[in-house]
Design brief:
With 209 residues, the protein is mainly alpha-helical. It has two domains: 2-138, no CATH class; 157-209, Winged helix-like DNA-binding domain superfamily/Winged helix DNA-binding domain (Arc Repressor Mutant, subunit A), CATH 1.10.10. It has helices spanning 2-17, 21-30, 32-40, 53-67, 76-99, 106-133, 144-156, 160-171, 176-183, 187-208.
Length: 209
């Protein structure tokens, strides 16, 4: 199944490069859950009260649609790198608009570096979860990135509470006590919720692979 998804994305990219506008939207949709989790660690705490991940994803999509003719890559990994660069730019622009940083200020460069670091942490987290919870199919070659996309898609299918506890535990690096305070539950209850969330995630991943 993982290779099927990979092949479908490759086909959509080919159609998009051939001028099929609908394929561009479908291709972006294939990565929306992955991009959402990447963006989670890209928005600073100062900006999260004014700009949501959904705002960033929408702006990234609209910009990608307008600029797709400029894309010169031939692989889905190149497409993701291109989309990621657009998303970093959208996040940086949001910080400038709402925090008042001048466009050519040194803070702009620091902000972009910080945003990239946040996205890299999220990407590494997804790849680690893929290695831990997603079985490799014998004889099938799928990149770590494609496997990470499958994990992101599976997380998106979890209940809201399960998603929250996984994001706070794995992406934010919070302890069960810290998560409990945010969710107004005991650390023991949070731990059990996390265990159930991971078990459900594994089930979804088995079904997808």
């Amino acid at each position: 199944m993982a290779s099927f998804h990979s092949e479908r994305r490759t086909r959509l990219l080919q159609l998009a490069r051939a001028g099929n506008a609908g394929a561009i939207g479908d291709l972006f949709a294939c990565y929306q859950h992955y991009l959402r989790l990447l963006a989670h660690n890209g928005l600073s705490l100062q900006i999260q009260t004014r700009v949501t991940v959904s705002d960033v994803i929408q702006e990234t999509f609209l910009h990608a649609i307008e600029a797709f003719e400029q894309f010169r890559g031939a692989s889905t990994s190149e497409f993701v790198a291109w989309i990621r660069a657009i998303m970093v730019s959208r996040i940086a622009d949001a910080h400038e608009r709402h925090l008042g940083a001048a466009r050519r200020d040194v803070r702009r460069e620091v902000s972009i570096e910080t945003i990239n670091d946040g996205l890299s942490r999220s990407s590494a987290c997804l790849e680690t979860m893929a290695r831990d919870h997603l079985q490799r199919s014998p004889g099938t070659i799928v990149s770590d990135q494609e496997r990470a996309v499958l994990v992101a898609d599976a997380i998106a299918k979890l209940s809201d509470d399960y998603q929250r506890v996984i994001v706070m535990r794995h992406f934010d690096g919070l302890s069960f006590d810290q998560i409990g305070k945010q969710m107004q539950r005991s650390s023991g209850a949070v731990r059990m919720m996390w265990l159930r969330a991971i078990q459900r995630l594994k089930t979804l991943l088995r079904e997808s692979s």
